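QA checklist item 7 of 12: single-chain prediction sanity check.
[x] sequence parsed
[x] length recorded as 406
[x] structure emitted
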Amino acid sequence: MQKNGSLNYVTRVLEDLNAIAPQAWDDLLTRQDAPSPFMQHAYLSAMHSSQSASPETGWTLQVVSLWRDTPQGPVLAAACPLYSKTHSRGEYVFDHAWADAYDRHGLAYYPKALVASPFTPVPGSRLLAESDAARQALLAALLNLCQVQDIPSLHILFASQQDLRACAQAGLHQRSQVQFHWQNQGWRDFDDFLGSLNQEKRKKIRQERRKVQEAGVAFRAVLGPDMSDADWALLLRCYQQTYWEHGNAPYLTPAFFASMRTSMARHWLLFVAEQGDQAIGISLIGLHLDAQGLPEVAYGRYWGALARVDCLHFEACYYQPIEWCIQHGLQRFEGGAQGEHKMARALLPTPTHSAHWLAHPAFSEAVARFLEREKTGVENYLEALHQHSPLKAATPRGMPTPQAPL
């Protein structure tokens, strides 16, 4: 515990997120410019308690928090999860080349400090704060902690615009990547949406949907509170199957999904693919709820199949969620990390950003030069992608507004 500057915040570094009341954390989150369910107290706590993100898997949590004294008692002014990482897996912002360069020069890159939602490449607020001044103080506390603990670098991943402004003021390097998001333009139904696409893409989507239908596959959409024991069991089996098929152990443990069922069920939507009376696949969608508890943003998270059906992936992961979003008036559907193939399904290129601090002066300068070159490449890549919009006309209405790093 220590005092933090002239603003008279008290800094506390905690080893357990449960040392902060869930309501205090979530109330702070709702006041940010880009809240998401993946920074909620229950989600982050489940990552830790389920042993999905734990010291044994290379994620050691410290909760950095700032407190302001009031006559009624201490008030949470700012907070974020800070992970000490012994590897770069599960992050989706790739710095393996940086780690390799450190190693070749006989320097230690790990452990590094990471502010992120584990295994979750969803853009959103990371530095939760009641004001810009508190956010700056929180970032200063993070940098001070890295220096005191001799941690060679700090990385803030998939940050919001408020976060990026604070990082720019503190002199952190900024990095851009590209994801593919669907923006609702007020379409009446899926056919209306298809009518906005060029003929080639419209024809392709209809062909792909027809293949799934002709295979006798139908879909059932079920919200988390209505999911049965069988639905949750199918979700876990399909999730694990996807990872094993790619030669990787699943990141998330069964205990994580059990926790989501009890603590965050309202934030999940499951699409179940059924062939006759047999469930053969799923896609799981995360939901951000508005102040009235209604879904307004959807996030593609996990998918898996127990049988091979041509185009099942496209139907489960894109067409079913998009159709559901149109029916329920959601503003946006984020399709997850990477994947140019998503453009053919009208998920359009959208920049995402991260911020980085490296203690070693020479490596910090080298990374800054690299990021300048990479930034030009990303800008050129975005421009090239925009030239291939699936919409009939690449109008400002049809393309998301780029959010450039500051």
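[x] summary fact logged: The CA atoms of residues 98 and 367 lie 8 Å apart.
[ ] second reviewer sign-off
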